[in-house]
């Protein structure tokens, strides 16, 4: 995960929905994204959630405590022994009636304590809940590239129904999201800078970070525009050089057939200037000869026609 994505997540963990329905929606998405369910001999269910982001671990802990104050939780840290690998943080709500209760409220368990995949649609009727749900999904399994690079924001999940729900929520909020699958996971993605900015703003990213994204995007657009202009100029210069090369070849053919001295004065003068200035454009030749560009073009065309006639006449001998 890029450092920019970490910045975004570290900011989003401080966003708390005002209503309990939004908190439940965010918690449900977080659990759908990265939780596993456990149970004990009494058929009480528990929750295990593992993340490499300490702030996300704190957020899920806070949401669990807010939803069920008496729920018993514990947090453990596993330090990585491998270079450049992040620590992992495990949030555990031990199997208990309280944990089973929140799982039922979230739709993970049926009334008969049976695991229920569900779709979470029952508490996603309002836009505020949809936004909170997307925030939870992003915290649990989302990432966004730095704006200096390729524009790309994504949610990654192994659950197809959950992936389709995220996709549909994006569309309901008028975000042009797409979906693809890769190595047994489903990826919901945004690739347009405006859409990425809009989503980040919706789920609660502060203005400072959005402005950083916007500034980087504007700088990137300016660089791209400059590159396009340079490429265009380079292409135009190459076309000018190629055209000049063909024109000089035609003049040399005319000289080889001893027809150069018989050229009309203006055409001969143009041929001489072209030979002396092989890098010049037609507009520059016109300026050198103090005439119009169309006049230069007409004379160059005469040279071309004559050279073609001479080559054809030689070929028919």
UniProtKB/TrEMBL annotation:
Residues 132-223 form the WhiA LAGLIDADG-like domain. Residues 226-306 form the Sporulation regulator WhiA C-terminal domain. One of its GO terms (biological process) is cell division. Pfam families: HTH_WhiA, LAGLIDADG_WhiA, WhiA_N. Keywords: Cell cycle, Cell division, DNA-binding. GO terms for molecular function: DNA binding. It comes from the Bacteria. Residues 21-109 form the Sporulation transcription regulator WhiA N-terminal domain. HAMAP family: HTH_type_WhiA (MF_01420). Belongs to the WhiA family. Involved in cell division and chromosome segregation. This is Probable cell division protein WhiA. It comes from Megamonas hypermegale. The lineage of its organism: Bacteria, Bacillati, Bacillota, Negativicutes, Selenomonadales.
């Amino acid at each position: 995960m890029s450092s920019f994505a970490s910045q975004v997540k570290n900011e989003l963990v401080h966003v708390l929905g005002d209503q309990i329905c939004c908190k439940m929606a965010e918690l449900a998405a977080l659990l759908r994204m990265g939780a596993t369910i456990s149970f004990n001999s009494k058929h009480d269910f528990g929750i295990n959630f593992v993340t490499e982001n300490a702030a996300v671990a704190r957020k899920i802990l806070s949401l669990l405590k807010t939803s069920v104050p008496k729920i018993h939780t514990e947090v453990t840290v596993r330090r990585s022994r491998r270079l450049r690998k992040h620590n992992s943080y495990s949030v555990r709500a031990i199997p208990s009636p309280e944990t089973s209760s929140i799982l039922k409220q979230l739709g993970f368990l049926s009334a008969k304590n049976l695991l229920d995949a569900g779709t979470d649609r029952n508490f996603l009727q309002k836009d505020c809940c949809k936004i909170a749900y997307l925030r939870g999904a992003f915290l649990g399994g989302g990432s966004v590239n730095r704006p200096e690079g390729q524009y790309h924001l994504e949610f990654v999940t192994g659950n197809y129904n959950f992936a389709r729900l995220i996709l549909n929520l994006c569309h309901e909020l008028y975000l042009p999201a797409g979906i693809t699958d890769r190595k047994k996971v489903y990826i919901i993605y945004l690739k347009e800078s405006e859409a990425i900015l809009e989503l980040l703003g919706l789920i609660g990213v502060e203005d400072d970070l959005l402005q950083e994204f916007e500034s980087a995007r504007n700088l990137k657009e300016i660089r791209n525009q400059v590159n396009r202009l340079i490429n265009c100029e380079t292409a135009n210069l190459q076309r000018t050089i190629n055209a000049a090369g063909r024109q000089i070849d035609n003049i040399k053919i005319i000289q080889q057939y001893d027809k150069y001295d018989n050229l009309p004065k203006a055409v001969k003068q143009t041929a001489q200037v072209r030979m002396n200035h092989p890098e010049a454009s037609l507009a520059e030749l016109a300026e050198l000869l103090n005439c119009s560009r169309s006049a230069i073009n007409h004379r160059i065309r005469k040279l071309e026609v004559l050279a073609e006639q001479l080559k054809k006449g030689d070929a028919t001998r």
